[in-house]
User: Fold these one by one.
Assistant:
Number 1:
Amino acid sequence: MFSSHDGLCTIGELAEHLGVSVKTVRFYSDRGLLPEASRSAGGHRRYGPDAVERLGMIRSLRGLDLSVPEVRRILDEQDAQDGREGTGAGGALEDAVAGRLRVLGSELAALRWREAALRLVQECPPAERPGRLRLVGAVAAPPSTASLARFWRAWLPPRMPARSVTAFLEAAVPPPPDDPRPGQVLAFARLHAFVTRPCGGGAGVGSCQPRAHGVAGARASAVLYAGLAEAYDLAGAEQRRGAEPSPGEALDGFVDAYASTYGARDTPAFRRVLAGRLADDPRIDRYWELTAEVISASGGPPEPTPGSAHDWLLASLEAQVEVAAGQGGARRGPVGEAPVSVARA
């Protein structure tokens, strides 16, 4: 290839050797990625032997869909490392590959979501297709959970500590599945529609909040939600093993969260009043039903959610109160302010 007296080749010879067009070689040369060794008397580009390896590297990097600026940073770093022993792949290459992998992951997630959405429309009865198209069309691919987070941020008690809000959102906002089934796409789309039209279509978030949200301070809210999170975890474990609602550690933690928040003692009377007030709170069961559909594995039992754990604990509390009433339980006593309910919004 480099048969000339000076050991250099023309742009055409370099392009032919690597199976690319002259235009491609010129493009990379003009952008400083492929330096010329010299110019002929007639002004034609001449390249040295190292141009073969360098152009091959450029083609490989571009074949991975890395941008020209990224390729430039990688080559510049490689040039700087030449002559230094023990130097391996630089940070520029690692960063570029990691960034491209993130982009590809997002693109693949979007494609899988669109495929499941198309199957959802394809497999439903013709009469239902317009409605399903409207539902799935309102959700991006891959979907964002921003609308769900906004719903809960508006619903949670005011001035609640940011750390407590973040912890609650992690439990209450279901992440879209990486490889969704059509049913999961439908559930997520319905969930998005639910939170953008909360509490029965336009009634507004405030109309469906538990009464205690208006009176509990920031510190009290943090104490309550931290206690409830622990109780829900314990109740979720009971649900996974198929246990019926019953008294135990989970229920004790659940009641203690309310008692600690409102400065009350955990007595039979407190439990009786707590059960009645929680039962009277508004509900958003539909949110939790749809959440369970989004996160449940194919063919498996529904995964516990904070809502289902709350209902399991409330059923345990009501059963215990019933038994106590049948046995002539303690007199009804006062409790603090109306307790907040996570499963009832």
Number 2:
Amino acid sequence: MSIRTTHRALLSRLLPDDKPDDLTVRQGQFHLVVIGSDRVLCLPRTRAAATRLPQRVAALHALADLDLGFRTPEPLLPGGAHGTDEAPFLVLSRIPGEPLETNALNDAEVVDTVAAQYATLLSALARAGTEEAVRAVLPQAAEGQWRRFAENVRAELFALMSESGRLRAERELTALDGLTHLTRAVVHGDLGAENVLWEWTHGLPHLSGVLDWDDVTLSDPAEDLAAIGAGYGPELLERVLTLGNWSDHGLLTRIAAIRGTFALQQALYAIRDGDEEELADGLVDYR
């Protein structure tokens, strides 16, 4: 049954300027996202995602206070009143713009424009990571996080994989050994193409905002660079690295190792949240 039917009263109340049947609904890893004309409604897909809403609100408030050079969603209405049967939700401001179409990067001038703005974005996040107010609110990546991640994948996911899938996963997990523990920058954590919005002016895209800060931490910029490479390909990543003066071999090694874990990260989140659909998608190449 459609969310427009099951949550019709909630949609009408929280998005009063829109007709429920005209709303766009998108499914993310953690939330169903209902896009209105000037607001966005996030409905957690699992109980675990619902419990993370307060932390998400705190992080978004901290980011809204920074001059990052791009927009982030601002919390308007956290909801799901205690002691009621109302579904938990979060209403956010809507940021104009759309993700880049894949074929947009066939133009060399567009590639240069996008890469320059990504380099600026990452520099802004690095500066934000030095702000005491931000460091007081955002979680820091735990020391030994990749070692524990590897242990958890082996314990929780290996039984669901084929023998060849386990061998593949083991190679990817081994690549994490010895990764440097860094907490010097704000890291989005899911900087894929679908979470970065652009507006076009005079034939060129301009970064308008970044969505979906569920995984934001103080961590290693290699995580966001790996997501850029996965979302747009090696040519754009190389250009971003050049423009940002990130060229040391250690960073390239970290990017490659982290990128190799993306599907396993998705699957591990999913099994813990009880999300069978996302689990199946994350493990599709390991079965």
